Amino acid sequence: MQLARVGAGVVGVLLVVAGAGVVAAQAVPSVPPRSVAAPTTPAAAPAAAPAAAPGEPADVDALVAHALAANPLPRAAAARLDAAQARVSPAGARPDPMLMAGVQNLPVTDPGFADEMTMAMVGVGQTIPVRGKLALRRRTAERQVDAARADVERTRLEVARDVRVAFYELAYLDHALAGVERNRRVLVDLVRAAEARYGAGADLAQGASAGMGSAGAAASPPRPPSAMSPAMVAASGSPVPAGGGMTSGGMTGMGGTGRGAAGVAPPTPLSAGPAAGSTGGMSSGGMSSGGMTGGSMRSAGGMAGGALQEILRARTDLARLGEDASALQEERRAVRARLNAALDRPSDTPVDAPRVPERIVRAAVADSGRDVRFASAALGARAADSPLPTVDVLQALATSRSPALRAHEALIAAQGAQVELARRERMPDIDVAVQYGVRPMHPDMVTATVSVPLPMQRGRVQDQAVAGARAELAGLEAEHHRQRNAIRAEVARLHGEAERARTQLALLKAVVLPQAHAALAAGAASYQAGQAGLSAVLDARAAVFNQETAYFRALSEFAKAVAELELVVGGEVLP
């Protein structure tokens, strides 16, 4: 009866795991709860990770608003915009007039100031630019303001993208860590139950061997000690029973009888009387009691070895979970530091329970697996009913709204004005001046002058300036063409990533996760019936864990692709 009670405990653990999986396989929750404590058994659908610190879950929109106010990049871009705006007025203003004062025609010898040509002079001069030059200079400065303004918008979008991408990555890592913890607890329970079952099976084998009679007992070899030591107990801390055991498939070889491991009463130990009668009846068939006892012990030894392997396999899985948790924790610290850097906060500032917003979850995957549809029955078809605009629409939006392209277009316009200004520079500016001379003993005099530079080196100066400005404009136009192509390609790539994540989520919700949970339930049932070992259950459990992790990874990838698209397009892309 001891083995039956232990086996029932093992099956209880497995049925809870499989039962939860079967229920949740029908519908993976589309929006994780704000904070869910890690259960003892793995749920079939992914659950939200607990908050890293007490408090309300973090809201990504609030974090974006905080980053836009605190991050130094938008402030730097705004300062550059102020500087560009301050340069507009000076660019369109005429040069300041020049004030002149002095003495003219003073002889170096007598009569000095008494000379009739000597005078004290005061005058003003002004440079008059060629018509259109000031307007072109002002236009250049205004276009540079437009470029700086677009750069401010681009910088704000980049900061928002950085916050959202890091936040969604944290949401995935928290879900993954919660899944590792759930798996660890389940493995600990399974290891404890398997160890108890292993010990109970060994004790039963000992009792059966003792009941074979003196002849069988004399022929039976002593049972070897357990190969497991207390040091092999990992997270559970439960002691390892000494002695042999039985496999998860059940106990066989006792008089040719095979029994199930759970829910079936163990064989009644044979007494000395019936054993002797059985021996007499079986001797005529050529089988002695000593041979029967040896076969029973070999079967018990085989069961012990199989159970030991399964326990060691479970303990190896536990150790690997620790390795996975360590890697995830280190990755989370790095991502949290990146998020806090965007928020202008210390790197170790906690971020409470990050989760993907509900509107993005609804856009990524249907609420139920029954609502999942695909564009066609062909292999590799996308999930239907995409909330994203088509690639052509997104590319058109990007080429018209992208801040990077608008900034570059403004720079091209500014350079175009510079080309026209270089042409105007072939016509020199005019300097005019008026002077008034005072002579002490003679009438005062007025002088007016007009000065014009002579373009003696037009081919080496003015023409080369025009050629340089045109070449600069051609380079900007070619770079703009390259940027447009790059943005179209980036839009197509990000749209494909988002659709790939949507399709993966649809497959996981409608097909993969339900089948993984069904496989786990079938493995638990086979283990209960003695038709499979614990390894099959462990494999099925690992498959469920991997698919749940893939679910949240795909959800995070979709959210990050949307955030990247919003940066490239220059605004929201989801309805």
Automatic annotation (TrEMBL):
Q: Which domain of life is it from?
A: Bacteria
Under the heading InterPro entries, the entry gives: MdtP/NodT-like, OMP_efflux
Q: Which Pfam families does this chain map to? A: OEP
MF term (GO), any: efflux transmembrane transporter activity
Q: Which residues form a coiled coil?
A: 311-345, 466-504
Alphabetically list the UniProt keywords.
Coiled coil
- Entry-linked PANTHER family: BLR4935 PROTEIN, OUTER MEMBRANE CATION EFFLUX PROTEIN
What is stated as this protein's family in its record?
Belongs to the outer membrane factor (OMF) (TC 1.B.17) family.
Q: Under what name is this protein listed?
A: Cobalt-zinc-cadmium resistance protein CzcC
What is the organism field in this record? Answer: Roseisolibacter agri
